[in-house]
Structures are given as C-alpha cells and as structure tokens.
C-alpha cells in the first residue's frame, strides 16, 4: 500500500461526467429486481439477480462465479494480479418493502425526486455493491490493469442474518485472503461528513423465561402463588443496579479497555447530545450521560438492553390474574474480549449463583465483536482517499456501536476490516419505506472507489 | 335473631321431595334466558329476564318492582313484616358463554349429565337468586307469614363490574337497611364442606407507564438512550425487596392487623398447600410460604401483584431495539384500613420521592375492602343453619381473598355482610365453559334458606 499522487476532488469527479446516465441506468436496473431474502424465491427471480451481478462483474473485467451455500448463492469475483489484495464485502439481497402503503413510489421502480433516488435497497446495499463494480470497470478502462488482487464477496442472505456466511468463510478462507476488507455499512453523518467505522460491537441476544403456575390464576392468590413477572424483575435487578450500571458477574472483567488511540479518536468526533435528545424526544440520556462520555459509552462500552418483555394480560382495562409465564428479550452489545457464548454462560452462572436457575436462558443469536485499530494502514488509506476527493472532514469512529458478522472476516481470517465510502446518508431510511440516497453521493461513491483502488495500487 | 328448634337435616330436605321437579323446571326456565350483560340487549330479552324474576318474587309473596339505574334495571323486592330485616344480594345477569365450541351442551339449554346441571349462570348467580326466592315461597306456604323484613336486591350488571350499584345503593339506602346482608358468591370447598366468607379484600388496579424515546430506536443506542423497560424494573424493585416483601412506602402501616378472632378462625381451616402446589404445577409457593402462614397471607394480608406487563418486541426471534414505551398492570389486594384511592396516592408519592415522577400511574379500578367480624351474629346463624341440615363441617373464612363491591353495603350502609349457603362447588367452572352445579346441592340450598329464614324469624 503506497500513497499516490494527490488528485483534486474536482478532477476525480470530472472523470465520471460523461458516464452519469450509464452509471445511474445500470443502478436502476439492479434496483428493479425484488431480491427480498426474507421471501420465498418465486421462480428463480432471486437467482436472476445474483446472475445479473455476476454479469456486471465479468463485464467490469473480473473473473466471477456463483458459489452455492445451501441458501442463496454467494457471488464471488476476483480481478487484478499482484502482491496486495483487497476484499470487498456487500450483499445483493434487500429488506422486505412492507408496509407498502407508506411508499411514495413503487419500491422496485426507482424514482428520482429532488436530489434523491428512491428504491428499496439503494442505500442498503445495492448502491454500494454496484458502485464498487463500476469503479473497477472505470479503473480498468483507464489504467488497463489492476496491480493487486481485488476480491468481491457478495452474499444474498445479509437481511436474514447471514446464516450461510460463517460456514462459507471458513470453507473458502483461501479465496478471501486479503490485506484489508472494505465492509458495507458506512454512512455520511447528519452534517454530510463521511464516516469510517473501524469495528462492530458483538451481540448476545437472549430471552430470559420465568414460569409460574401452569395456568393463569385468579389474583386472589397473588400473595402466595409464585409470580413469574416478579421473578423476572428480581432477576433483572441483579443485572443492573439502582444507578443503571451493569452488574452481571464477570461481564465488566471480560471487556478489554478502550485503547488510548480509540479514546483519542473519540475526542475528535463532533457529538451533539442535545440534537440526539431532541430527535428522540427525551429530556436526558440514560444515567444523565452527555458529551464525550455518552459517545464513549455508545461506541466503546458494552450494553445490557431490554428489547422487549411480556407477561400476563396486556389488553385494555383491568384483568386480575397471576400470569403463568413471563419473558424478557435482552441484547448485550459486546466489546473486544466478550464473546457471546461466554456472556450467555456468565448469565447462567450469575442466575445459578443467586438460586435463580429456574429462569431459562434461551440463546437466540450471537455475533462476535470485531475491531480494527484506528491507526491501521487501511484506515489511513480510506481517510486519505476522501482527502483526494477534496473532503478533509472524514471522521474515524472506533466502532459503529451496532453489530454485524464482520468478525467472520476481521477475527476469523485476521483481516483488518473497516466500513468506508458507502453511499448512504443520515436520511437514507435504511430498512424503512422511502429508502433513498442522494444521486450525487452515489456518483461520489463510484469516484471514491476508483481513487481508493488507485491509492491501494500505488497510483 | 333467635335460635329455634333443632330440626334434622333429613327432615328439612324431605320437605322438598314433592317439589323437586317444580323447583328444577323453574330454574331451567330462568337459565334459558341469555341475560349476558356484556352484550348489547337485542330487543329487550334482558328486560324480559328482569321481569321474569320480578314475577317469581311476586308469586312467592313479595312486593316487587323494577328500579331503573340508567343501565340494566335492579329487581327490588320486600316480604314480611317485623322488627328485624335481612338483605339478600344477587344478580340475574351472566358472563358471556364464549368460547362456545368448548361447551358440551348449549349454554342456554340446561342439561343434566350425571349428578350435575349444566348451563351458563347456574352457579353464578341464577341458582342462588332463584333458590332464595323459592325458599321464601316455601316458607310462606308453610308458615303463612314472615315475621321480619326480607329484602331482595338483584342487579343486572354484576358481570360488567356493577357500574350502577354504587349510586343505586347511596340513593336507596332506606330500601336496603337490614340487620345483615347475605351476599352471593360462596362455595362448597374441594372436600364438599360449605364455606362462609366474612369479607372481601379491597382492590387498587393500576397501570404504571414509562416512556423512553418517541419511537423505537436501534439498540446500538442501548447504552445511552433511556430505556422505559429498565425504568419500570427500577421502579418495581422499590415496590418489593429481594425477599419479595412489599416495600411501598406507607402501605403496611395503613393495614389494620388481623384480629385474634380472624387468626383463630384461620387456625380452624384445613389448608393443604401441597394440593395447591400440585394443582398449580409449582414446587414452592411464593417466598416458600406453607401451611397456616400461607392461608393467613392469602386471606388476611395485602398483595402487590403483577397481572401483566409489556414493552417493545415480543414476537419470535431477535429484534434489537430500545423500546419507546413500557407498562405494567398491577393489582393490589387491600385489607381493612387500606382504601384504593389512598394506595394510589401512596404509589405516586413513593415514586416522586425517588425521582420517578416520570412514571405515570393510571388508576384503572378500585374496590374498598369489607370485613364482618367472624363472630358476628349473622355468621353464627349461617353456621348453625348448616348444622340444622346435618352439616357440622361448615367453615368460616375471615375473607374470600378476592374482591367485590360488598363494601357498598358492608361499609357504605354499615350492614354486616357475609357469603353463605350458595350453590356452587369447587367444580362449578364459574365464568368458564360447562358451568354447572350438583342437582342435590341446588335443592340443599333451597332447604338451607328455608331453614335460615326460620332461624332468623325465631322458629
């Protein structure tokens, strides 16, 4: 990886001027394919979409193939020759468009209104996928050959939790080896600044289930029948103390402390907690957090969140019962050092130690945390590429705060993995009706990857 | 009130032998009228039922009338002349029969199978209502006149929470004055022993509502967004301590302690907590309670029960959100000294004192506690009447553990109020499909009230 000549942002974007219609028409074609992974694939429409991506990769100059996974196929491709290697991860499947009545135009008929292009999947993740393929095509047209290996891993099951990705990565480690991985999922922030994310938190998603009487009882027995809702409250009170601090035995001890570099990166991120409070309609953040402390909590500290809970009668008015069951759904966001399986084990031990082994811990979903140092070469490259485009305001976040299967690559294969250059912005409404991107952001993303490939290749 | 000659149980029941068919046919006629108070009254069928009861009262020899309430009318009647007065409370409305598919015969076409009579309302409360009217008729046929005033208050809205009863009682206190009131709602227990209940607990039914962000958030914000489900847990932990004891400020102090007589009554009640545990499928009662301690808790101590709770995502699998709202439904069962409005006030003060005034306390429903001393004359009379029928096993419970509007009479009018002699048993499935009573129990109930009227009248 070497840094190349400094090109002006205008110059880079000007390269695309004559291609504008071509690039956008191709994107619209991609967006018209309803590749909703949560649906049954009616008659091969889904595979057609995978084959379309394959065709685009070949057209761009890559050697592409479909690799079967048992679920939807992975589109894999490789271009270029050389010592270095870059891996690009994306997905060609999309979220269901429902509720349809809230869309202002057909989710699968791309429409431009104002400066934005609306369609399901344009921000998550078809825009990213195609921008990188088009960038390769432009690169090869202009420079003739790519002096490193550029590998594409484009899956079709991201929106249903990537069930085949783990086995696929393990079985195809050789195909995926690289110096760095560019994951999908970055954004431009509220102020339009490009963001580079250097990691994801892990996730342990569990359900705690308490059982009381075999059937709901008249609440005249409320003083003597074991009440599963109270039982859960008694368990939950041992997981957070009165101050809202996590008190799960051994949980804090597992967490690696944030590095000085992470803390330094945090200090450079503009963070307006007043704007968040306004957006959320709350007077205070949790535990009265504010400023850098809140940002550090959000990006670098683990959480113990209640995502849902239920017991007994929840309809209108009054019904007097001792419920027979109660459950709470919790997601623990994890930082380096905390694996989900270990956290589930801690939770079971924690409850057992308190005589609460009657509370069942159901392990629903787990993701490992993944972290690339904020001063890794790929982070520098990604930031400098923005500078080349005239954007000196790119921000480096130690993590995205959320979770994803990045650790399969970052930890599983030991490849530094970041999210950068993606097409979405803060108004993209990912997973919601009226998903969109700014048209100019899309074209800028194509230019960004052309330039990133140049930099990585030493130009 | 004087105790009269001791008649043998056989002798009393023998009086009814020739009337068996007449009494049962009349009951079936009553049961065929679908007086479901929760339904819209289609074309006056409901009023027809009230008028039928009125007719039966007149036929028995009472002076009866319908009194309008704004809702379904009250059937009021009075019989006899004299110093003493007895008030009988019952209701002619019934619960909805649904789910219909679980009935083995038409809920409104009474059917005898084995030794039981099946129909909606037979146990709650038409059997009781008619047995008392028939008892009056038999009494007057046999003795010519009744030497005290027997008053009937028969309402038509009990199964929808008696909304008109409070105003009715206040406006008609003169019509209702009596030395004692025989409320509906007693049973025979699992061993077939008649039970006399001397009171009901009060009820404060509230919803506690916590609010977080204005919309569900991605749980990547779980470390900094205020979570309403955690907020509720933090509030609930202040209402019960780790040992499950109620710690609501001022709550215990309001409760009058059980009287020595109540405690003595408790000690005479056979109570098998193992049978309860088996019926409920639990290994232990709440807080490891057992034996007399459990019975005391159930009948004489207040409760703080969670009847339901809800927040966020409760469907299958995992969804990672910070919920925007959470609520818990709680019923507090109250003992003498604890009025529902005062308890709701305590709860608000309790939360305010802890900086939790953001949690809304919605007052959904309240009932005052009501208590008649276990050694009151009417209790003795009720127990001795059972002895006259050859039943020396009647049990006196200080309260029923549950709640009802008895305090309107017991406290509002200062009339000692008990539940005794009712027709239901432990298999009656009140409010459920296949509601039933034992045919012999019905006839015994008629005999019970004939004898009770005799005793009250000094025979």
Going by helix content, strand content and strand pairing, the class of chain A is alpha+beta
Top-tier CATH class of the largest domain in chain A: Alpha Beta
| Amount of helix of chain A | 25-40%
Reported by name, the CATH topology of the largest domain in chain A is Aminopeptidase
Number of strands of chain A: 19
Please give the largest β-sheet of chain A.
Answer: 6 strands, mixed
Topology:
The structure is a homodimer of 459-residue chains.
Chain A: H1 9-14, H2 20-31, H3 45-60, E1 63-67, E2 74-79, E3 85-91, E4 111-113, E5 116-118, H4 122-143, E6 149-155, H5 165-171, H6 173-176, E7 180-183, E8 195-197, E9 199-200, E10 202-211, E11 217-218, H7 228-236, H8 251-254, H9 260-267, H10 273-280, H11 291-300, E12 305-312, E13 321-322, E14 325-334, H12 340-353, E15 360-367, E16 370-371, H13 377-388, E17 395-397, H14 407-410, E18 417-419, E19 436-438, H15 439-456
Parallel strand pairs in A: 3-6, 3-7, 7-18, 8-17
Antiparallel strand pairs in A: 1-2, 2-6, 4-5, 5-19, 9-16, 10-14, 10-15, 11-13, 12-14
Helix pairs in contact in A: 2-4, 3-4, 4-15, 9-11, 13-15
Pfam families (chains A, B): M20_dimer, Peptidase_M20
GO molecular function (chains A, B): metal ion binding; peptidase activity; succinyl-diaminopimelate desuccinylase activity
Protein name (chains A, B): Peptidase M20
